[in-house]
């Protein structure tokens, strides 16, 4: 146990690529002949599986890393809305939860060279005194912080996290850095952080394949009907909801980039406005309504896919949000691609 290295991967926010980075580091450590373990103390990406609420990330980790650990050990706390409600009502014992995590970790770490612990947004868990700084202290872990960077103001979040972790913070990995921000980060941001005592292991460029899902994958997951033959191999990274008037919608959509627009199938004005914006890559029409021939004709001219589902707009929004946020770490191919990026842009040896 004393020879086991424990690394907690945490993040400044949600959906910054933390899972892919954690699993990619674990794969790289395995390739370097380390016997690797994995744990996610607080399960947050929840789905129903054989009657239980489980986090998808430990399930993927167990498959990819060839682990035989039990799910209740890899994910000792299911951080669901029901759990959080129980905490604030006093039905959860903080001490018992900490003991559960520590006991599970002891089992998972036994005989391992390196255990990678996947955290979350670093402040999550405050209601039960299990934020990532608390977990790092509990497991005596060194910490890697994953952060995004678009402008210097994003360094506020990095410094706040660095202050919370203190000496346990080994360094920062920036992810999904756009071309326009890369020079600013390298020339100004990273030297500034180093001047404040925060090490930076590297910065990963933004890649569409790791930042969203294809239109075809979106259609498959939603069980949507394709109403046009528009491009379905393009990636969408975000969604917008069309619930306003046509003129307002046009101004709204013109700011879009790699976006799927969700709107009612009977909203021809919104559909037409969306098709006039180059950043809109797909229309998702709800309510089971079929659009007019004019809309479909314009979509065909613009080579924009039009998908239709029978669900209501609110349900479609929830499903699309989950798919776009979860699509980055859906399979081994994604993690392998992330491992190659880390190898090219990050001081991997310093991490593993």
UniProtKB/TrEMBL annotation:
InterPro entries: DRTGG, P-loop_NTPase, Ser_kin/Pase_Hpr-like_N_sf. Residues 218-322 form the DRTGG domain. Keywords: Glutamine amidotransferase. This is BioD-like N-terminal domain of phosphotransacetylase. The keyword Isomerase does not apply. It comes from the Archaea. SUPFAM superfamilies: HprK N-terminal domain-like, P-loop containing nucleoside triphosphate hydrolases. PANTHER family: DETHIOBIOTIN SYNTHETASE, DRTGG DOMAIN-CONTAINING PROTEIN.
């Amino acid at each position: 146990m004393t020879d086991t290295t424990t690394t907690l991967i945490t993040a400044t926010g949600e959906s910054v690529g933390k899972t892919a980075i954690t699993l990619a580091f674990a794969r790289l450590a395995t390739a370097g002949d380390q016997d690797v373990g994995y744990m996610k103390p607080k399960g947050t990406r929840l789905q129903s599986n054989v009657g239980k609420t489980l986090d998808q990330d430990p399930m993927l980790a167990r498959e990819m890393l060839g682990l035989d650990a039990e799910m209740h050990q890899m994910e000792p706390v299911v951080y669901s809305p029901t759990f959080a409600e129980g905490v604030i009502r006093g039905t959860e014992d903080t001490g018992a939860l900490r003991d559960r995590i520590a006991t599970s970790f002891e089992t998972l770490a036994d005989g391992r060279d390196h255990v990678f612990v996947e955290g979350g947004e670093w402040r999550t868990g405050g209601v039960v005194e299990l934020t990532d700084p608390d977990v790092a202290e509990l497991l005596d872990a060194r910490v890697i912080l994953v952060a995004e960077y678009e402008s210097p103001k994003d360094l506020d979040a990095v410094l706040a996290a660095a202050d919370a972790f203190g000496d346990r913070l080994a360094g920062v990995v920036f992810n999904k850095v756009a071309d326009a921000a890369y020079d600013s980060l390298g020339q100004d941001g990273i030297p500034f952080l180093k001047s404040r005592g925060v090490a930076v292991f590297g910065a990963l460029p933004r890649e569409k394949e790791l930042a969203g899902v294809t239109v075809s994958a979106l259609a498959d997951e939603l069980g949507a009907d394709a109403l046009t033959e528009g491009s379905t191999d393009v990636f969408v990274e975000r969604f917008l909801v069309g619930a306003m008037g046509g003129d307002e919608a046009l101004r709204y959509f013109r700011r879009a980039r790699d976006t799927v627009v969700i709107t009612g199938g009977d909203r021809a004005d919104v559909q037409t406005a969306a098709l006039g914006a180059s950043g809109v890559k797909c229309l998702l029409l709800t309510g089971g309504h079929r659009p007019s021939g004019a809309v479909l004709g314009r979509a065909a001219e613009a080579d924009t896919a039009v998908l239709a589902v029978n669900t209501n707009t609110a349900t479609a929004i929830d499903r699309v949000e989950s798919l776009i946020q979860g699509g980055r770490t859906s399979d081994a191919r994604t993690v392998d691609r992330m491992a190659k990026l880390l190898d090219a842009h990050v001081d991997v040896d310093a991490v593993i």
